[in-house]
User: What shape does this take?
Amino acid sequence: MSKVAVIMGSTSDLPVMQEAIDILKGFDIEVEVDIVSAHRTPEKLFDFGKNAHKKGFSVIIAGAGGAAHLPGMVASLSPLPVIGVPVKSSNSIDGWDSVLSILQMPGGVPVATVALNGAKNAGILAAQIIGSSDRCVLDKIEAYKEGLKEKVIKGAESIKKGK
Amino acid sequence: MSKVAVIMGSTSDLPVMQEAIDILKGFDIEVEVDIVSAHRTPEKLFDFGKNAHKKGFSVIIAGAGGAAHLPGMVASLSPLPVIGVPVKSSNSIDGWDSVLSILQMPGGVPVATVALNGAKNAGILAAQIIGSSDRCVLDKIEAYKEGLKEKVIKGAESIKKGK
Amino acid sequence: MSKVAVIMGSTSDLPVMQEAIDILKGFDIEVEVDIVSAHRTPEKLFDFGKNAHKKGFSVIIAGAGGAAHLPGMVASLSPLPVIGVPVKSSNSIDGWDSVLSILQMPGGVPVATVALNGAKNAGILAAQIIGSSDRCVLDKIEAYKEGLKEKVIKGAESIKKGK
Amino acid sequence: MSKVAVIMGSTSDLPVMQEAIDILKGFDIEVEVDIVSAHRTPEKLFDFGKNAHKKGFSVIIAGAGGAAHLPGMVASLSPLPVIGVPVKSSNSIDGWDSVLSILQMPGGVPVATVALNGAKNAGILAAQIIGSSDRCVLDKIEAYKEGLKEKVIKGAESIKKGK
Amino acid sequence: MSKVAVIMGSTSDLPVMQEAIDILKGFDIEVEVDIVSAHRTPEKLFDFGKNAHKKGFSVIIAGAGGAAHLPGMVASLSPLPVIGVPVKSSNSIDGWDSVLSILQMPGGVPVATVALNGAKNAGILAAQIIGSSDRCVLDKIEAYKEGLKEKVIKGAESIKKGK
Amino acid sequence: MSKVAVIMGSTSDLPVMQEAIDILKGFDIEVEVDIVSAHRTPEKLFDFGKNAHKKGFSVIIAGAGGAAHLPGMVASLSPLPVIGVPVKSSNSIDGWDSVLSILQMPGGVPVATVALNGAKNAGILAAQIIGSSDRCVLDKIEAYKEGLKEKVIKGAESIKKGK
Amino acid sequence: MSKVAVIMGSTSDLPVMQEAIDILKGFDIEVEVDIVSAHRTPEKLFDFGKNAHKKGFSVIIAGAGGAAHLPGMVASLSPLPVIGVPVKSSNSIDGWDSVLSILQMPGGVPVATVALNGAKNAGILAAQIIGSSDRCVLDKIEAYKEGLKEKVIKGAESIKKGK
Amino acid sequence: MSKVAVIMGSTSDLPVMQEAIDILKGFDIEVEVDIVSAHRTPEKLFDFGKNAHKKGFSVIIAGAGGAAHLPGMVASLSPLPVIGVPVKSSNSIDGWDSVLSILQMPGGVPVATVALNGAKNAGILAAQIIGSSDRCVLDKIEAYKEGLKEKVIKGAESIKKGK
Assistant: This one.
């Protein structure tokens, strides 16, 4: 069974990151959540990054704000795919700092970056990564996409009726 | 055997995207390359996106510049993980247009975005996605990371000797 | 009789897009409104884009936020002039993502982009496009511009009196 | 017969704007070219803007760089649809000044803005505007789009052969 | 006696522009206020710009938001020094559009640009321009600067006491 | 007789600032040029700023790049109008640093900012400031503006002939 | 005994700068607070900068907003290390102006810049500078870092319990 | 005797970072240079950061480009003051990524950031930090600043002679 780690730099990131946790649970994928701060708990970061693939995780989702080093440092330490979520924290310069600190990784060490505060998409992407070798999860993703479609169709109908 | 599709909006994107192809071949991962333009060949885009997972692909890498819609539209059509490479094309506004057009996808449809012109990292990320369920590829990634380390160590030594 | 399609990616775009609908109705131009999501209903997008000019539309107005692909994809599929409205959605990076995703289209596939949240101007521009071959609509635009002028003149007078 | 005016702020804009002229001629649409500077020939601007629709023009294409006021001022003076081309001039701040000066028009006075240096797309958009009421031009646009498609298909083939 | 014109694109700019009016009155400099919209009242703009120096004005202060063309167009029409105030209007992209539309004027037609919403400084600058040839106004500016200094000194004292 | 001071932070700014000197000489206005570095010669800055108005200068033009403090510091010290020229120096971040360091002055201490590298316009603006109380200089500005117009008209003619 | 000066351009900067004062007091480091405005009290700035190292200060922390010249001007006048705090003031353009005005100092005159509104970090950095030659302060910094770690560990535990 | 560590993420950063080394040697301060990559040699980073203060270093200068994590991660691991140099690397987005990744550190872990490619200033700042408790180094800094002044004075003279 595949398992996803959802880590973040601070408890204040949890309201944003909860969306990743919820969507993964909706796909019946096991999630483990932890606070790992690149800047305040570097030893925990090293321990986590070095061992994640040995603990049965398939994918790591890491969220952080400002000069966000957590996703990139975990990607430096782990051979697993790392998904980075730029979080728009309170003293951020409109989110640009978190986006660029996560996205612009040097050649050799990728981070799969999603939109600013895009934790939901990080969860879906983790499921897609698992789904790329697990037919059952792939089917759930197709069903999920079908659900998105239906919601739009209904929205379109209600608008036409409203006029 | 896993297979990766590397598609791009125009032949002019090939010099950038070649790095993804090369790194995947270095990992002995099968690659198929194609030109699919969201704006000039929408039917081909539709056909490609709808069928990629049926043709045995595990991951899709899509590169595009300017108002880059290819990665997001493929992600809309396919249940597979899609990696987006923002390409700094000639009339781009310093690359910001490609970065934001690929990164800022709405909730429900993620694109795993890498750095501007970061095709090499897109290739590594695709390998990591395959490696998350394929021990043999995971080992190759660990070896690759070991190689990166050695190169830095050697660089450090040559600098110390030089002084 | 000319007819304008006003489409948008999500019902949440309606408060912004309503201004386009209202101004067109004010010019007695027929409007049809629909929700078409490039990312969640790609089949509907294809169907809409391929057939809009056969259904009697003269102009298409498409609004979307974030990595806004709807205007560009409709422009890819339709020979009609497409007006794009960048919508400042909730997780947008200050609107830059929608502006650049719509504006920076590659050579061959233009989108007539208006200001951020500029749906009103999209409606006027659609009327001007119709007016370019319809004397009666052109006259209404001239009258509308005359009205703008009068409002400014009155504002100027009230300020002078107020002092 | 429809006729398009292509104006620009300076002769130094001509290399960029020539693409609009060429594409319109390719569609057999009559073009008239002129230099009209908002800042150096305001009287000519005024005269041009006030009378363009009386001289048989259907669409105006206006290109300018830096604090680009030409497209917006012509739109202020004329009831015709005005297409603005932001030109990346030598002392521009990476083109942002021309883009924002043309795009961010206030409610009431739209400019149909295309990409930075996107004169080719301005020409196509002008043709689409004419085509929205002229079946013959619409057919040419559909043929043009078909041509774009074929070029991509050929590019894709050559890449596959090359591998 | 020197006289300053304070014009703005819309009555909604008045709360910002009032600071220019107030500071000039504080210097006992005559002020005339008017609404002149580049985009909605181009004839009034032309008339104002062409004649301001004949009506006894020494300096023109012009405030506008978004694609702000008023200061630049007045500078195009008048030989007088024109001070431009970028106003952060409601649909502005964080004020960047007004700043760049006013600041980045082409060679030959300067606008003396002040900070975003910096109407107060526009008023002081107008007074300094008059003061450059009017000893009495220059003295008032020196006194004003002395006042600024005293306020800071008092603030510093109150902080020291407070600790 | 009015006199203008043209100062700059470094001899490397001279190629840009020369345009201000040339245009002022073209208007027969006396110019004095000096290097005054806010960061490297603060005492000279202080001395210059405190005494400029006593030495017969009417206007000060100050050019600087990067974190450009020269124009603002001179404005802090002198009651004269100060025109700031943001210079795009070699390690500048695309000129944004010089533009914002000069433009965004706090309330009370204005700098009349011109475009990036806009030294020519700084010279014209200085002439306009002098011209606001000197009929003879005002006439020269009107003649200069007439010259700009003629050049555009000739450019327009040559383009029409060329076609 | 080492002593730190905390200066700022305006009393309105105090709420932000207080964090620097508090953290330094927490490290038992002597602090002196003053208001010194580069633009409104240039004489006080000169006096302060010229004499700070003679009055027993080891480090200067300077906070300012907008076109923030205080940190750079103090660095120009003093041989001491100067820490600059960009303050996001009310009329700032999202803080970019203060960041760039402080960070982008020319070669020869460094300012140690911290994050936007990062006064707390300025205080810690000042303590680290003192600690680099004072074992006792270095120990306190190590203890402080240990405290940061523990807070994260506790946050992580509470999250795990909460689930 | 004080000692400074100059580290950088890659040998390609050396041409920029050499300026820090040279200026420190000019102040007769001992320098040790090393390549430490946060992303490719995380163990070396960890070892370096944990032990730098035990090896006799007083200050650490760390340079890196793109998503630059080296300065922040060293600051996380070491109690010493860390000076960060944003390097404008080849695939950087105009340097914004390195600037923001280094500057925008979270509360608790400061990095003393200097200008883009500002390695020379990093060296001077390191000397100033040492000089804050070492009278002899402080004297050298005062002499250095005197030298800067003289160079400007000579530049000013040569310009005046040239005219």
Remarks:
- Residues 135-162 of chain B form the longest helix (28 residues).
